[in-house]
Amino acid sequence: MDTNTLAPEITDGVDLYQLLQISYDASEAEIRRAYRKTSIKYHPDKNSGADAAQKFQLLLLALETLTTPVLRTKYDGLMRARTQKSQRDQALSLERRRLQSDLERREAQAAILTSRAFNQHQLKKHHVDTLKEEGVKRRKTKDTNIVSTLTSTEDGSSKDKTSKTVFIKWIASKSDNITESQLCNLLKPYGPIKSVHIVLSNTQPSISKTIKGLILFQSDQSALNCYQLLKNKSFPSNDEFFNNIKSVYYQNVLSSSQSDKPDVEQPYSYTRNVSIEEKIARIRIKLKS
């Protein structure tokens, strides 16, 4: 055996100190004593097994390596390198476990945040849908009330069968926000007003929008006066609203034999047998025209 080179069988996977059951700082005398004690178990004269022969040969290499200073130094360096590598691997393993644990924690937090965001989105969507449904219900209720008011006006008196309702359509600027109360104040010079309803004819975004107003006067004469004066552009004030009026309609339900009123337009015709839904549909068709 070369006294400057470790035998091929001596690798960092072979612990010669453990093989001889001695400490890493054992003296040469302790090494030889341990060799004699251990080699007896595996001596070919006492143990003929193949494994025993290999073990005995390795004990000889251990004795030679650990009792030769140069070889022992090289072997101890090899073992230190193995120990350091094992420590690095252990540290890396701990770091990997830490990173894996941190990754799993972050993924769990992300899943919670995603679930929370999804739930908030669902709640917001449900809230928006609810508002839309309520808006549709309110619009339908308002339309129903308008038709109900018009119907009750026609059915309220068998003696007075003329309408008390004037329909006004006007163009309003985008910033205009006239209320039913304001419309009532603008038109009350024509006569006492019972109720006012405003309906948007065009709800799509545009530069201007058409608005429909349904004005129910307390008397048919006041309604007719309002119609005729507005038709003739005889306005009670200089308010910009009057200049934006597009058209005026008056509901006249007198029979042709009874009518001695001035000729007026009749864009609507209600009968007692027409359903409220059909009346609403007719009004909306007219509003879109």
From TrEMBL:
Gene3D superfamilies: 3.30.70.330, DnaJ domain. Keywords: Chaperone, Cytoplasm, Nucleus. The keyword Acetylation does not apply. It is found in: Cytoplasm; Nucleus. InterPro entries: DnaJ_domain (IPR001623), J_dom_sf (IPR036869), Nucleotide-bd_a/b_plait_sf (IPR012677), Pre-mRNA-splicing_ERAD (IPR052094), RBD_domain_sf (IPR035979). One of its GO terms (molecular function) is nucleic acid binding. SMART domains: DnaJ (SM00271). It comes from the Eukaryota. GO terms for cellular component: cytoplasm; spliceosomal complex. This is J domain-containing protein.
